[in-house]
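User: Before I run my own analysis I want an independent prediction to cross-check against. Here's the chain; please return only the structure tokens and, at the end, one sentence I can use as a sanity check.
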Amino acid sequence: MDRKLFLFFITLIFSTSFGYGQSFVKTTDILKNSDNNTTGGHLNINQNYALDTLISRYILANVNLSKENGYFGMEGFRIQIYRSSVRNARDESNKAKQEFLDKFQDINSYILFDNPGWYMVRVGDYRSKTEAMKQYLIISKEFPDAYLVPDIINFPDLNTK
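Assistant: Structure tokens:
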């Protein structure tokens, strides 16, 4: 009996020490005031520790949302109008992009490359599938091979109306 109790306490000590080794982001660290204003007030934030855990998980999950080109974005949808890996796929993707821009000037278009030699033309930056579906119905009339794809999109410009 003493041996079982001893093993139980050793297991308990080791399991609690593993929790301290994980990186943890506190909300108070994110919301620090770097201004040395002595005339300002004082703010106390009382919140559940589970909220800090959720914020930490969200930050860790979104660390890898970066493109190879070095810019960051968010999860969303785009409409893919062209994809090919033939020898002259680069030229054809440029032609497809130009054809798209001739018909839809106000929608952003992107030429993407994926190994081992796939060239793709994707258009739009849509935050939700329903937002993308509205444009997809219009674009699919001109480009019948178009389809929706999940992608990392550019952050929306919130200053435009």
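Sanity check: The mean pLDDT is 79.
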